[in-house]
Amino acid sequence: MKTLINVVFVFLSALPFAAHAQFGNFNLNKLTDAVKKVAEANKDITEPEEISMGDGIAAMILGATPLHKDANLQRYVNRVGRWVAMQSGRPDLPWAFGVLDTPTVNAFALPGGKVFVSIGLIARLSTEAELAGVLAHEVAHVMQRHQIKAIQSARSSAALQSVAQAEASQRIAQGRAGGNPLTGALANAAASEGIDFVKNGLFLRPLDKALEFEADRIGATLAARAGYDPYGLVSAIQILSGLKGEDSGVSLMMSTHPTPNERLSELEKFTATLDKFSTQPQLGDRFAAVMNAAIAAAK
Amino acid sequence: MDSLIEVPRHRRRFSRRIRPALIAALALTWFAGIGAHAQESVTTNRATELRANPDDAAVSLQSLAAQAKVQVIERKGAWSKVKTETQTGWVRMMHLRGGVTLEEAPQSGNRSSGGGFLAGFNRLLGGNQQTSQRAQSATVGIRGLSPEELKTASPNPQALADMKSFVCNKPDAEKFAREVNLAKVDVADPGEAPRGVRR
Lengths: 299, 199
What we know:
The structure holds 2 protein chains of 2 kinds. Chain A is mostly helical. Chain A has a domain at about 45-145 and about 205-295. Chain A is about 65% helix and about 5% strand. In chain A, strand 2 (about 105-110) and strand 3 form a beta hairpin. Chain A is globular and about 65 Å long. Chain B is of the alpha+beta class. Chain B contains 6 helices and 7 strands, in the order H-E-E-E-E-E-E-E-H-H-H-H-H. In chain B, a hairpin with a 4-residue loop joins strand 5 (about 80-85) and strand 6 (about 90). The radius of gyration of chain B is 22 Å and the shape is extended. At the A-B interface, helix 3, helix 4, strand 1, helix 5 and helix 9 of A face helix 1, strand 7, helix 2, helix 4 and helix 5 of B.
């Protein structure tokens, strides 16, 4: 009996070493850390954090692609965009619209009210109502906080999956404690999380199809509220439907959105509403004047 | 509108003045992989009617089968004005799929549906003219917005500040809208209508 007790004692005293061998550097402090990180990851993202996060993502995109040089075109797109955004549920965000100088066909919204549209897309449009429709789709993503919801779910799944992989949460914790090398608008934890969000490729993950359809429906509604023909968005999507997805210039857009034909079929469900406002102006002339001036200025 | 009269004029301008620019644009887009040449023609996605006016009640000029090829010359609200092989009339826009071919893109593209300002595309590419050279050595993608380039970019705070310098405040946006008589319209979100309730 005594021998048996001794054996059990030896076994028990050896347990911590066995556990150590099995789980590597596992210890109680790490576990507490992980719990904290998961809690941090699940915190609601405040509006100022959302805006800073958008700053971080925008700075990354602008690090990869320059802004178009035509100041007149940049101001025009901001005016159309702001007028549309004023009809949304978030009219007071610091809305900023940027035209990117790339032949790529794409447009995207960032948390907090920053929206990019490529000159490759704008050059394929013919009216202000089409541009308003494209911008309204992006404004709708911001209004519904689609990206923030995606970021939040990426955060918490990363934190839950593995402590080591919860890099994004870790960065925000570090950032909140200080120690961020960037300055100005980017000198905060949320902006650095935005930067990481692009670096780790999460930004390129497509949103749920249902959210894209919702952005189309709300986008057409916002464009109509702004006084435009809501078929401008339909027309813009139809232009996309004529482009081949395997071309690299559109592949990123195609890989992150449902097919244009699916989008048109979904929008068709709201034909009654669209038709009611379809006699509102398209404003081809004002759009053409800005575009022709941009072409002339670039000579 | 006057698009029917304008078509031949576009064609003339197209061949004389735009051809060199177009060739350059095509060369550029070829290298960039965008392929304006890859645009497909417009087809009907169901059997539909070609009508005399943009109205469901207007007289039908021709019954079009599904997958019928048409050429879009104008858009008006829910309707596209199209040319078939034999006639010109109006088709519901939702019954059409596909963009306009580059050959049909008018230079002052304010009346067509698609094509836009591709004729001036190479000039519009402003500071990104080096794209063609870069793209020759790159295997995939276009400068700036490929997944790899985004992931490996360095943040550019100066460009962010530049972008913010172009923003428009609310009074300016209201003035901009008034200039062309755009006014706020009361439009309910059709997605929020309770089931079975007609608006």
